[in-house]
Amino acid sequence: MSRMTAHRTALTAALVTPLLLPLWAAGPAQAHGAPTDPVSRVYACSPDGGSNAQSAACKAAVAANGAPFTLWDNLRVADVNGRDRQTIPDGKLCSGGLPAYKGLDLARSDWPSTKLSPGTTLTMKYASTIPHTGTFKLYLTKPGYDPKKPLTWTDLPAQPFASVKDPALTNGAYRITAKLPSDRTGHQVLYTIWQNSSTTDTYYSCSDVVFGAAKSSGGGGTAASASAGGAKESASGTPSPTAEKRRPEASPSRTTTEATPAPSNPDSTPVASTATADSGPSAPMLAGGAAAVLVLTGGAALALRLRRR
């Protein structure tokens, strides 16, 4: 390659690369969601789960899983189309039947939990960074549920106690308000199904909750460690943000379980340490791809003109 050709090649790269970088960085910025209050198992036991991730239950879940729950916002199954009970096997409700999340199905009573009061108003905070339309269905395990046995569909009522369609995504989270049943006591599981209508995906999550007699002023409550003797307050369910680059869909692969300190802003939105591509390309992705093609075409034309001189 002559010195002049090398110079022209370098010039073309210098002109085109800065334009492509923002498009490349914006392309994989996909994300999904999971409850952070009441804290879900997958979020509590993720590297972003703070002190909850250091609990005995979470350590056991990660060990059973074989990998940390880095992609805590990606517990989703495609093409369920409302056939949840026919698609997700008994004993695997918390993992959605996905091997990458199998540690969440452990039957134990010491999962990080949230204190609630029966008959009060719940405001669930369901973190997400990309808005999707769809319906949230909230179930509570039946009275007499035994957390030391695998969770099955017979542990849940036939109908949800709340169903909310297309809530607004505000400050990085959906806030779902519903009145809790008044006949629950002790350790229960709040099971959330989010069936997207803008994608083919359905998301599943288990949030362990402990009902006491004291009234609360609403909201999700306080994360606690549940045991046979009751609930001992241990850590906040407030999520901690993470600002890392996101990558295409993959099973959780990071090996660290280091806790992330909780932020001082209670309304901050967590972001999974890595993320995945959605079921289909979003409008920003398509626009970014088109823009990239135009930039590449213009760059090639410029390089050709320089070479002909």
Defining traits:
8-stranded mixed sheet, 309 residues, Coagulation Factor XIII, Chain A, domain 1, alpha+beta, 23% strand, disordered N terminus, 22% helix, globular
Description of the structure:
The chain has 309 residues and is of the alpha+beta class. It folds into 2 domains: 3-24 and 286-308; 31-280, chitin-binding protein cbp21 (Coagulation Factor XIII, Chain A, domain 1), CATH 2.70.50.50. The chain is built from 5 helices and 12 strands. Strands 2, 3, 5, 6, 9, 10, 11 and 12 form an 8-stranded mixed β-sheet that branches. It has a 4-stranded antiparallel β-sheet with strand order 1-4-8-7. Helix 1 packs antiparallel against helix 5. The longest helix has 26 residues, at 283-308. The chain is globular and about 35 Å long. 39% of the residues are buried. The model is unreliable at 1-29, 214-220, 225-266 and 274-309 (pLDDT under 50).
